[in-house]
Amino acid sequence: MASQEVKLLSLWVSPFGHRVEWALKLKGVEYEYIEEDIFNKSHLLLELNPVHKKVPVLIHHGKVILESLLILEYLDEKWKEFPLLPQDPYEKAIVRFWANFGEAKLLRPGWPALRSQGDEKEKALKLWIEDLEKIEGELKGKKFFGGETIGYLDLAMGWISYMLPVWEEVGCSTILDPKKFPSITAWTEKFLSHPVIKENLPPRDKMVVWFEKRIKEPFSAQ
Amino acid sequence: MANEVVLLDALASMFGMRARVALAEKGIEYEYREEDLMNKGELLLKMNPVHKKIPVLIHNGKPVCESLIIVQYIDEVWKDKAPLLPSDPYQRAQARFWADYVDKKVYDAGRRIWTTKGGEELEAAKKDFIESLKVLEGVLGNEPYFGGKTFGFVDIAFVTFSTWFLAYETCGNFSIEVECPKLIEWVKRCMEKESVSKSLPDPHKICDFVATWRKKHGVGVGRLSAYMSTVTLDRFECVCFWGLLSF
Q1: Is the full-model pTM beyond 0.90?
Q2: Separation CA A17–CA B46 (nearest Å)
Q3: Range of the domain at A17
Q4: Distance between CA atoms of B162 and B152, rounded to whole angstroms?
Q5: Domain limit, last residue, from A19, A50, A78
Q6: Which stretches make up the GST N-terminal domain (chain B) (predicted)?
Q7: Contact status, residue B78 vs residue B26, Cβ threshold 8 Å
Q8: What is the pLDDT of residues B170-213, one digit of tens each?
Q9: Domain for residue B28, yes or no?
Q10: Chain B residues within an 8 Å CB radius of A67
C-alpha cells in the first residue's frame, strides 16, 4: 500500500514534526503517522535515531531520514509537486541561512526563555526579541517568506504562528505585539488560513495544558 | 559574466577552511581576505550583519554565509566539476546529517577542551569529543572517504578539524590516533589531496593561537608552550617532546 512506503515517527506537539507533516500534505504524499512518547522513548526511536534519540524520523522504503529541515530538503528532492525550496542556488542559500537562524536563535531558545523567571527571563527575552526583529525585517514587503506561496522557510518558521502564542500565554509574556511586528502578524494570519496548515495544527487547549505541565517541571532540553 | 569570488576568512577557522577546500576542489579562483576578528572590517559587517562572522563567500557582490551553506552553494553553482554532494537524495540527506553532526557534537566538545581550565569539565569535554569521533569513525567504516570512494561533503566538513587535533590533544593530554586510528589514516589520506593540504594551516599555528588565547584568558598555557618554539618538529618528535613535559 502506498501509505506504508512513508512513515513518520513524531510527537503530536513537536513543531519539528509539524513542519514535516505540512510538507508531506502539501506534496500530497500519503504516510503512516506513528506517535512517540518522548518521556518513554520506544525501542523503535532508539533504533532509528541512536545518535540524537529525537523526533521527527522519516522512514521511506525502510530508509531513515533525520532532522526536520533535512527531511524537508529530502522531500523536496523526491517529490516535485509543490516545490518548497527555490531553484536558484543563491536564493536557496538565503532560505537555508534564515532557517538555521530561526532554529538556533528563536525556536530552540524560545521556550527556555519564556519559561524562565526574573532577571534571567528579562535578559533572555531582550536578546530573543532582537533576533525576532531580524525575521520581521526579512519578511517586510513579502506575502510569505516563499513569496507568493508558502515554501521551505514558511514551514521552518511556521511554529511562530501557532506555538509562540501558546508560550506567551503560559509564560505570561507578550512578545508578538502587532505594532512592533506588523509583517510577522500579517504573515501569521495568511499562514494559518492556508487550507493545509489550518487542517494540520495541534489543538490549542491541549498545547496549553502540555506547556503548563512542562513549566512546573525542571527544564530538560527534549 | 565575470565570476568574482571573494572569501572573508580567518586562518585558524575550521569553518573558513571548509570554504577554502571546496573552492580548491572546484578549481575556482578567488580573493582570500584575512579578517581581524578582534577588529572586524566594514565589509564583513556589511556582508554578514546578522552574525558578523566568517566565513563569508561573496560571489559577484552577493554574500553567502555559514560554512556548510557556502559549500553547498559552491557545489550547486560550479556543478560541472568535482561534485561534493551525492546525486541521490537519500545519500544527500545522510551527508548533510553527518556534516551537521560534526557541527553539533565535534565542534562543541572540542571547544570545551581548549577553553576550560581543567578538572571535571575537561574530562567531560574529552569524553564527549572522543565519543563523537568514534561515532564518525564508525560511519567511515572501511571506505576511503566519508563520501565513499570519492572525497565529498562530509570529508570537507570534518577534515578541517584535523588541524586542531594537536591543540585538543595537548590541552586534553590524550592521543586521537590511539583512540581513533582509522580517522587519523583518513586524515592522512585527505592531506594527500592538494585541495586539502594547501587549505589547512600547520597544526602548530593552531597551537600558537590556542596558547595565546589561553594566556590572555588566564587559562594556563602549560604543554602548549612547547609548540610555540618548536614549529619545525615533525609529528613523532612532538609526541616525544610532549611526553617529557609536565606542568
Answers
A1: yes
A2: 35
A3: 6-78
A4: 16
A5: A78
A6: 3-82
A7: yes
A8: 999 999 999 999 999 999 999 999 999 999 999 999 999 899 99
A9: yes
A10: 96-97, 100
Helix axes B89-101, B67-77, angle to 10 degrees: 150
State the CATH number of the domain containing residue A100: 1.20.1050.10
- ipTM of the complex as predicted: 0.94
Q: In this structure, are A45 and A151 located in the same domain?
A: no
Retrieve residue A71's grid coordinates: 527531511
| Residue A200 identity (one-letter amino acid) | N
Residue among B15, B143, B145, B138 nearest B82 (CA):
B145
3-state secondary structure chain A: CHHHCEEEEECCCCHHHHHHHHHHHHCCCCCEEEECCCCCCCHHHHHHCCCCCCCCEEEECCEEEECHHHHHHHHHHHCCCCCCCCCCHHHHHHHHHHHHHHHHHHHHHHHHHHHCCHHHHHHHHHHHHHHHHHHHHHHCCCCECCECCCCHHHHHHCHHHHCHHHHHHHCCCCCCCCCCCHHHHHHHHHHHCCHHHHCCCCCHHHHHHHHHHHHHCCCCCC
Note which residues in 88-147 of chain B have CB less than 8 A from chain A.
89-90, 92-93, 96-97, 100-101, 135
Q: What is the residue-wise DSSP string for B82-110?
A: S--S-SSHHHHHHHHHHHHHIIIIIIHHH
Q: Domain containing B37 — which CATH number?
A: 3.40.30.10
Q: Which of B15, B65, B71, B136 to mutate to test the interface with A (most CBs of A within 10 A)?
A: B65
- Answer yes or no: do A93 and B70 touch at CB < 8 A: yes
The pLDDT, as a whole number, for residue A220 is 64
Closest by alpha carbon to B9, among B199, B168, B205, B231? B199
Strand order across the beta sheet in which B62-65 lies:
B31-34, B5-9, B56-59, B62-65
**Which range marks the domain in which residue B58 is found?**
5-77
For residue range A128-137, what is the model confidence (pLDDT) as tens digits? 999 999 999 9
Q: How many domains does chain A have?
A: 2
